[in-house]
Amino acid sequence: MDDLLPSFITLGGFALPAAFLLYVTRPLSPATIAYLLVMAGLCLLGGLLFAAGTITVLSLKAPPLANSLLVLAGAMISLVIRQLWHLRLKTH
After folding, report:
1. What residue ranges of the chain have pLDDT lower than 70?
2. What stretches pass through the bilayer (predicted)?
3. What is the Cα–Cα distance from 20 to 9, expressed in whole angstroms?
4. Residues 70, 51: contact at Cβ < 8 Å?
């Protein structure tokens, strides 16, 4: 089970943004759900890019658990940026 922990944490980089977006968005239609899942996938992609950039710039030789935590942190940062952008568009 310990070998799978980094994979589950990395999967959380998709699951947590998806759950949050589905929770805060109303009303939900099939098209809205598909859109939100694509946004959660893009948050995961942002997390992967954040982790890759951090590992490359800092030349980290970290264990897989630390790398997956970087992916999760990057996904959460991407989600915050998306929410701030969405809020900005609604106010203008």
Report:
1. 1
2. 6-24, 36-59, 65-85
3. 16
4. yes
14-31 pLDDT tens trace:
999 999 999 999 999 999
Q: How much is the pTM?
A: 0.90
Cα-Cα-Cα-Cα torsion 71, 74, 76, 77, nearest 10 degrees, comes to 180
Residues in the chain: 92
Task: State yes or no: cis peptide before 27, omega within 30 of 0.
Answer: yes
**Tokens representing residue 83 in the block:** 């929410």
Say how far apart CA 78 and CA 9 lie, in whole Å.
16
Say which residues have a Cβ less than 8 Å from residue 85's Cβ, sequence separation at least 6: none
Dihedral of alpha carbons 19, 44, 68, 7, sign: positive
